[in-house]
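One record is given unchanged without comment:
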Amino acid sequence: MSTERTEAQVRPGVAADLDALTAIYNHYVRETPITFDTAVFTSEERRPWLLSHPEDGPHRLMVATDTDSQGDPGNAQRILGYATSSPFRPKPAYDTSVEVTIYLAPDAGGRGVGTLLYKALFEALADEDVHRAYAGIAQPNEASARLHERFGFRYVGTYREVGRKFGRYWDVAWYEKDLQPN
């Protein structure tokens, strides 16, 4: 994994990002236990997910793009990854809690992109009526645990063998973060 820093810009996700975001997510579906989805998606199948993350409100989609591609009219912005805040659970009493996640392009890890994404996401959520953020991390994933801990998440417990993918069971460690500290 590279340790060089990436020059990136973070902005809200838009409809034009859908194909690139779907490709990034599908990498994790096919190659890793990081998501428990087991079948890849078409962009059209992912469209409702994208539309559920507007530019305002507690459910956001932030996208990191490579600044090296900006300014060159023949070169579209390359998406390096994305972060989301999504409903934690569907019942109304959970409305002030969100589940957060980050997915990076396979070659974008270890370069600070995740940090940029979470910084922008939590800044965007600062004025929202959101009390707690939760993150589920399929185990093992030390890099993700370190990222979440840097952002003030604390470990709260592990669901043991909660998901089955690639012919084996996986644990998920859960982390929480106060978004409106006392």
